[in-house]
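Narrative of activities, Objective 1.

The group set out to show that a structural description can be obtained from nothing but a protein's sequence at a throughput compatible with the screening campaign. Below is one input-output pair from the validation batch, recorded exactly as produced.
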Amino acid sequence: MTNAEVIMRVQQALGLQTNQQAEMVVTKVITAIEQVLLDHLGDDGFSIKLGSLGRFRIRHKPASVRKNPFTGQRVKVPAKRVVVPFGFHRCYVLPARCARLQSCRSASCGS
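Output recorded for this entry:
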């Protein structure tokens, strides 16, 4: 699903008049999550839990030695705390809801 599709669904769900209004809602929610994570970068293991959706977390990355792909030179990378690239962990409720919705659609529920 693309950002545009998320915006369209938010617009429909909230009954907003324009895509711009829905885009503002989506942007503000994502920005708020990013800001909270940035505020807690020093707290290793800090996470944001979003109800039945899942959580985002911060992880400590130890110092390492990496190779510059262009020059082949070894470079020391200092330790740091980061928002894990795949730091989102879905909640156990989300797959169950998706399965229920899928079975309901295939059984033509509500029609």
